[in-house]
Amino acid sequence: xxxxxxxxxxxxxxxxxxxxxxxxxxxxxxxxxxxxxxxxxxxxxxxxxxxxxxxxxxxxxxxxxxxxxxxxxxxxxxxxxxxxxxxxxxxxxxxxxxxxxxxxxxxxxxxxxxxxxxxxxxxxxxxxxxxxxxxxxxxxxxxxxxxxxxxxxxxxxxxxxxxxxxxxxxxxxxxxxxxxxxxxxxxxxxxxxxxxxxxxxxxxxxxxxxxxxxxxxxxxxxxxxxxxxxxxxxxxxxxxxxxxxxxxxxxxxxxxxxxxxxxxxxxxxxxxxxxxxxxxxxxxxxxxxxxxxxxxxxxxxxxxxxxxxxxxxxxxxxxxxxxxxxxxxxxxxxxxxxxxxxxxxxxxxxxxxxxxxxxxxxxxxxxxxxxxxxxxxxxxxxxxxxxxxxxxxxxxxxxxxxxxxxxxxxxxxxxxxxxxxxxxxxxxxxxxxxxxxxxxxxxxxxxxxxxxxxxxxxxxxxxxx
Length: 465
Ligand SMILES: *[C@@H]1O[C@H](CO)[C@@H](O)[C@H](O)[C@H]1NC(C)=O
Ligand SMILES: *[C@@H]1O[C@H](CO)[C@@H](O)[C@H](O)[C@H]1NC(C)=O
Ligand SMILES: *[C@@H]1O[C@H](CO)[C@@H](O)[C@H](O)[C@H]1NC(C)=O
Ligand SMILES: *[C@@H]1O[C@H](CO)[C@@H](O)[C@H](O)[C@H]1NC(C)=O
Ligand SMILES: *[C@@H]1O[C@H](CO)[C@@H](O)[C@H](O)[C@H]1NC(C)=O
Prior knowledge:
Neuraminidase; single chain; 5-stranded antiparallel sheet; binds 2-acetamido-2-deoxy-beta-D-glucopyranose; alpha+beta; 2 domains; globular
């Protein structure tokens, strides 16, 4: 009885328009009856006059609150799933701590750089955990514990470094696995706010995450400064987890390796390697480091003659076509031979280059993948040699330049939908000064970089539309 009174009063307060508030007199006249209840409490019955009860609005409110309840439940499920993942992470970290301790007691040689990587990764873990904590706005013991674990591990790494011994391959693999798990946590978090994969209902890049340094290249050779890595942006069914890598110490692209999944990449167990060159037989080599893999085909700059090429990774066959007017006189700022830059986004395949007629300014071409020809071109006003690299997202070209040895920035955008160009400043941190490869993958919304022989990637946060 009490509840029904309170509820009805509340409804009236919430729903009755100002001009139709019931006066106390309306309540009176026999529609309110007071009595003493069975347990001596005061019982009050209210009978509302039918005409003044806003039934339709109550119904509307009930529907809205049901929707709200469903929404809240969804959010709670997400939080619960993230919490579950954190528990798994924690046990992984504990395991890793144990392994570190075992290694600590062994007499071996450690490489300084490896510690640097581990330290960066730990810092990334800490950042991710902070972000998780902020975005979920909960204080969870699991998250707090994760913090402590990370801090403990940092201390262990510090101590280990002073030994300056041993080979850290095992730890690197473990870290890579952990990183992948944390990344999944982060993806879940981003999913709550980022636009879905494949969708372009966002307002372009808002910011980049910290650089995630995955690993030294599969050749384990820091001298392999030229190359690229990433995922197929439009994978064949069954190849969704596949990664590719190509690296070398010279400017030529001579082979490309495919890896079944991330762990295989980290463990350097290639599914297959396609050789683009065999003495006296064929020479399909490329140059320029701005190739991509899409629908199981490698799109790259053919070295000789200067053309764009499409190499079928299944049949090992190649098709090469001239890009009308493209010149090989202008390269990006960091490296030579970067004349044709391939990119894939939510809308397909693109190539960026310069022409003599454009005096070295960037020209952007949309490629028809089946016909393998440039369908349409856009002319930008940015000089290619001032650019360090470029990539495409949702039909928008993003060009980067160097700010200093640790910072890079997207400084220019060109929107092919509107032919509008803009000078902007979206900065991101580099692992090392120079890099030759930078491309966005629309299939996971990450930006892949090959930075002085290291696999690096960035999460991309989009602006709300
Ligand atoms: C860590 O986990 C692996 C399996 O994932 C197990 O084989 C190993 O014994 C564990 N190490 C420690 C020190 O707990
Ligand atoms: C986080 O939750 C607290 C209450 O638990 C609230 O006061 C605060 O405004 C929330 N912060 C954000 C950023 O949502
Ligand atoms: C972290 O280190 C402290 C001190 O060495 C230790 O007491 C604590 O149990 C460690 N915590 C975890 C979660 O390993
Ligand atoms: C690559 O070659 C295979 C086998 O010949 C063929 O089935 C596939 O369609 C080709 N892919 C492309 C993108 O041309
Ligand atoms: C811009 O064009 C691309 C195709 O080039 C398309 O996928 C995208 O949805 C367009 N965006 C807008 C805002 O029209």
